Structure formats: C-alpha cells, structure tokens
C-alpha cells in the first residue's frame, strides 16, 4: 500500500473533526446587534449651561444636536467575540487620583445625573497615546426594577455605570477639546450589587440627600478617586465614540473596563432613588440606548476567547469554560475517529499483506506453470 495515501487517510479523519467542530461551535455566537430600547432614559452632561433635552425625548436629540444622529455614537453593545485583541493596549495609568481630605470637590445634581468636578491635577498617563486631564465624573443608573448601565456586554446591561471624563492636554480647555476628534478620553466601569459596602462610593452617596433637587450642589472632601474604578486597569475594551448626551460630539476615545465595581444593595438603592429630575420625579433610567456600530472596531487589551491550546490570561468567565469544553470534545472526537480509522486501516493492511503472501507463490506458480507449459509445448 502507498505510504502517502496511508498518511492522508489517517490525517483526514483526525483533522476534519478538529477543524470543523470548533468552527461549528463558534458559528453559533451571534453578531453585533443594536438593541434600541425606545422610551428609556439616560443622563450625563459634561457641558455647562442649561439644556432642555431629556431621556424621554431621545428621538429628537438629533434634531437639536446633529451629531446625535452620527455614525460614531455611544454607548454601544460590546460583543466580546467580535472584539479584536490588541496586545499594544497598555494598562491605563492614573496619576494624582488620590486626593487629600482637605481638598474640596463640587458635587451637583444637574438634572441628568450627579456630577463630581475633578481637579486638573488628575491625569491619564498610560494606556492612551496622548496625555489627558480629568474634568469630572458622573454616573448612569436604572431604577429599583431594572439595570441602567449605558454600555452593554454581549447584550447584558449592568446595574449602573461610572464615567470619568478627561480632555487632551494639547487643548486649552475641556470646551475646546470636546469638538476635536482626539479631544476626549472617558473611562467607564460597571457597577453591580455585591456583598459589603464600597467605602469609595460612599464618599459620594452620603451626600446625595443634600442635592436631591435639580441644580443643588454641595462639597465633598477629597479621597482616592481611583477607588471608584476597578483595581485591574489592564483588562479593557477600547473604541471611538461620542458623548452619550447632547451635543453627542463624536470625539471620545472610550475605555470600558472588564472588571466591575461592587456596591451593597443599600448603596445601589440610594443611588437610584434619591435624586429628583427637572420634572420633579425621581431621576432614574438616565441611560441612552446602545447605538449602531456602523462598522467600527472594538479593541480588547486581552484575549476575550481562549485559543485551542491555552489562551493565556483570559478572565475566567462561564463562556470561557463552555469554549474549553467544546474544544476538548472536538479533540476527543478527533482522536477517537483517528484511532478507529487507524485500527481499520491496520486491519485492512494486515489482511492484504497476508493475502499477498498467500497469493504470490500461487500466482507465480500459475504463471511459471503456464510459461513452462508453453515452453515445453
Ligand atoms: C480611532 O480613530 C483614530 C483616528 O481616526 C484611528 O487612528 C484609530 O485606529 C481608531 N481606533 C479604533 C479602535 O478604530
Ligand atoms: C469580561 O471579559 C469576559 C471574557 O471575554 C467576558 O465574558 C465578560 O462578559 C466581560 N465582562 C465585562 C464586564 O466586560
Ligand atoms: Zn456618561
């Protein structure tokens, strides 16, 4: 039997299941979707001045603010399977985020959210190609009956979301920077309910009762602002987007952290049920629905799906183990198939060589006999 043919016949059954099964599994995951949640509300306002937009009125944002109808809008849904692993996305570095208690910060209910003004001494010094200075941070939340993060991950909305807004130091002010494509950098992190109080969030939450009415403000003592963000600043998603409130300028380089922040149930309920809106209702569901990607890429600083032979440092999510299980099954079937095929081929091979050994003398005898007969004839 031909050796090359034997090799091919062995490799095929081994390779086919190995190649096909993981591909089939992956084909099941869905692609980018735009879930528009009409009629829901969001908040957040880095700008100054009185604006009259509302989350009840999403459809009309683009009438008054044309950028709101653009093709690079935020927030978005992050589909982790579609995110592109980019090893050159370095850990985000925060400088000057730890503030002394004698530094007083302004906290305000602006009618859309709660805003904490930040001193310009806070800066982003790593992870972005350029330097950015902090301006303010604010939150987006839902209600006691539903979550209210702006970004979603694989279609999942989290309880709340924090945005820390920065502007590029090459511009003189936030107002100037916000109209330039490379003007702003916003860090976003998700808030979830967990066990125990979060002492950093308490620094803000304990003042909410003082600013229940729209336009009210109070002073907050300095604390470590970095405590409001995840300890792990290495794992994040990155994309080009916009402010999530009018004027929706498409000038934001977004960072969405993969690790989330935990608040106690009581803390979360203070967040969603204390501030009042311009309509004198509770300020709730101040999030904008996710926007169409329009072909934009989302980068990930880490591998979001494990590779077949050990993907390294991925976050061990349930989906990861599902993939691993799928891969293990694929290998198992491949090996089983190969072993069966090998045994079958060996059997045929043995059988044939036995026949050959038995046949040969007979055949030569026949030929020899025939020839000799002919010769003697
Ligand atoms: C964001 O926009 C800049 C400028 O156009 C571009 O160089 C960069 O590749 C974009 N980033 C992503 C993640 O697409
Ligand atoms: C973090 O990344 C993992 C792996 O891709 C993903 O399953 C999980 O949903 C992500 N969570 C967040 C909050 O980004
Ligand atoms: Zn925001």
Automatic annotation (TrEMBL):
Chain intervals for the UniProt region annotation (Disordered): 27-53
Origin superkingdom: Eukaryota
Stretch forming the signal peptide: 1-27
EC number: 4.2.1.1
Coiled coil: none
Biased amino acid composition, Basic and acidic residues: 34-43
Catalytic function, reaction form: hydrogencarbonate + H(+) = CO2 + H2O
Chain segments annotated as transmembrane: 321-349
Keywords: Glycoprotein, Lyase, Membrane, Metal-binding, Signal, Transmembrane, Transmembrane helix, Zinc
Cofactor(s) required for function per UniProt: Zn(2+)
InterPro entries: CA_dom, CA_dom_sf, Carbonic_anhydrase_a-class, Carbonic_anhydrase_a-class_CS
Domain Alpha-carbonic anhydrase: 51-302
GO terms of molecular function: carbonate dehydratase activity; zinc ion binding
GO terms under cellular component: plasma membrane
Family: Belongs to the alpha-carbonic anhydrase family.
Physiological role: Reversible hydration of carbon dioxide.
Official protein name in the record: Carbonic anhydrase
Native organism: Zosterops borbonicus
